[in-house]
Design goal:
Layout lengths: L47 E5 L15 H14 L3 E4 L9 H9 L3 E5 L12 H4 L2 H14 L5 E8 L11 H17 L7 E5 L6 H8 L10 E6 L13 H8 L6 E6 L10 H5 L2 H4 L4 E4 L12 E4 L2 E4 L1 H11 L38 H4 L1 H4 L74
Parallel strand pairs: 1-2, 1-8, 2-3, 3-4, 4-5, 5-6, 6-7, 7-8
Antiparallel strand pairs: 9-10
Helix pairs in contact: 1-2, 4-5
This protein binds 2-acetamido-2-deoxy-beta-D-glucopyranose (NAG) (4 copies).
């Protein structure tokens, strides 16, 4: 979200008790969509055709998926737009999302979910104290709340934590969080739901950020990379926008990449970039993207205006609808790269203040959750906040320490990955009658 990322040092004064656990008992799972994995075998690709969805924005934080009325209302609009994915920035991990996730699945729509909230997030200015057990417990509880839905496409470990050159020193913490989430998903025996970071549109370190999230040992590498991009302002073109350079610079990048926000609003939006994004000039590198944003929240990015429970489609809605309808996905594999190699970690520079490849070790209290799980321990939207909660990392991680060493056995509460009885391996899979064998661009991880 352009205005909401990880808010610094938020009020530890907001008090609330951890929410009772009874809301986190068994959830039904949505069963009608094929789970998405990072690497298909190239016979059919999945392109994200999505919008960012957070009615109320960051100023009036509400979990849109905790309320069936909201979901029903907005999903009807998503269907009109022809979407297959939505991104939600903040959810209440104590709420029940069964109904909304099922409604999304019924509409053929996947969810890309940010796990952070303003109160439970890294602090970009002082990342070390904010990387702690309480924080990780909360985001693991969010994973628990969504892992069982087949239409949970991916998790974002962070959004725009690094937003200039100075804050690049927070990068090892972003990468450690990504590592820990991946280890948690593996250790809990969940389906291999992809985890990656959503980077800000920062020219001076975009490539370094991408390389960094895909360098090091396999346990440290993300499943995908995404960035927010506002450089195509209609009228524009592939070259005028600089998207040609963003294709060139990321050609051969070893993990899938997509735009987690796009839609410059400097001029009248015709969404002419849609035709470019889903053409083979870009699909060799990119797997689509998400338009910022569904609802108008005061900064003129909204496709619709919501008043009470009434949705009014604005001119941007119609433009996007027309653009998407007129832009099919490429046939075949879209020219994706089948190499999946690690990047070289970027060297320290005036725009990249990371001295070496070392990452902080996971805090011991969070490491313990790999075997016990965090279900029922989430704080929702009203907890006391985690940024100064203690229980921090006490050392540097050793190589491979983020690997999955033990997988929780199935119990009544451990959500096994086989929600719909399909193969859930990250490796190629075929599901009869369904064409969404997934591969984002390129990129085998394993
Ligand atoms: C996960 O989904 C399966 C299949 O629908 C269901 O049997 C199981 O109870 C769910 N587990 C949880 C913890 O919600
Ligand atoms: C993909 O995998 C399926 C099943 O393993 C196989 O039948 C098919 O030929 C493969 N397609 C490609 C393009 O490799
Ligand atoms: C680089 O990061 C370190 C902390 O890791 C900090 O002490 C230093 O001031 C930063 N340098 C710049 C130029 O921002
Ligand atoms: C592409 O890479 C070059 C060389 O590293 C860099 O100077 C340029 O800023 C990059 N462009 C974009 C759009 O990322």
């Amino acid at each position: 979200m352009k205005t909401f990322s990880v808010l610094a040092a938020l009020a530890a004064t907001v008090l609330a008790s951890p929410t009772p656990t009874e809301e986190l008992v068994a959830r039904a799972s949505s069963t009608s969509l094929t789970p998405i994995t990072v690497k298909g075998n190239g016979s059919s690709r999945f392109y994200i055709r999505g919008v960012d969805w957070q009615p109320g924005g960051s100023s009036q934080l509400v979990d849109p998926m905790a309320d069936t009325t909201t979901c029903t209302r907005d999903i009807a609009e998503f269907v009109k737009l022809g979407l297959n994915t939505v991104r939600v920035y903040t959810v209440d991990n104590t709420a029940n999302h069964d109904a909304c996730m099922q409604l999304l699945a019924n509409a053929g729509i996947y969810l890309v979910l940010d796990v952070n909230t303003p109160l439970y997030s890294l602090n970009r200015a002082t990342p070390a104290p904010s990387y702690n057990t309480v924080y990780l417990t909360n985001i693991f509880a969010t994973i628990d709340a969504f892992a069982n839905y087949t239409n949970t496409l991916a998790f974002f470990s962070g959004n725009e934590v690094i937003n200039d050159d100075t804050t690049t020193s927070a990068a090892p913490y972003v990468k450690a969080v990504t590592r820990d989430m991946r280890q948690y998903i593996g250790s809990r025996g969940y389906r291999s739901i992809p985890v990656g970071y959503s980077a800000a549109d920062v020219d001076s370190n975009r490539v370094e950020m991408a390389e960094y999230m895909n360098c090091g040992t396999d346990d440290q590498r993300s499943d995908f990379f995404a960035f927010n991009d506002y450089s195509w302002c209609d009228p524009s073109s592939f070259t005028t926008s600089g998207w040609d350079q963003k294709v060139k610079n990321f050609t051969g990048y070893g993990i899938p990449i997509f735009l987690s926000e796009y839609g410059c609003n400097t001029n009248v939006r015709k969404f002419e970039e849609v035709a470019s994004l889903y053409s083979t000039t870009m699909t060799g590198v990119y797997s689509g993207g998400l338009v910022y944003e569904y609802s108008e929240e005061g900064s003129h990015y909204g496709l619709v205006t919501i008043t009470g429970n009434t949705v009014t489609e604005g001119p941007d809605f119609t433009s996007l609808q027309t653009a998407l309808a007129g832009t099919p996905n490429p046939t075949g594999d879209g020219g994706y790269s089948s190499t999946g190699s690690a990047s070289t970690c970027p060297p320290q520079s005036s725009t990249w203040n990371v001295t070496n490849d070392a990452l902080p070790a996971i805090p011991s209290g969070a490491a313990a959750l790999m075997s016990t799980g965090a279900a029922g321990k989430g704080f929702g939207l009203t907890g006391a906040g985690s940024q100064n909660a203690g229980g921090t990392s006490t050392g540097t991680a050793s190589a491979g320490s983020g690997s999955v060493t033990a997988v929780a056995t199935s119990t009544s509460t451990a959500k096994k990955s086989g929600a719909s009885g399909q193969s859930l391996d990250v490796r190629p899979m075929i599901v009869s009658g369904v064409v969404l064998i997934f591969s984002f661009v390129g990129a085998a991880l394993l």
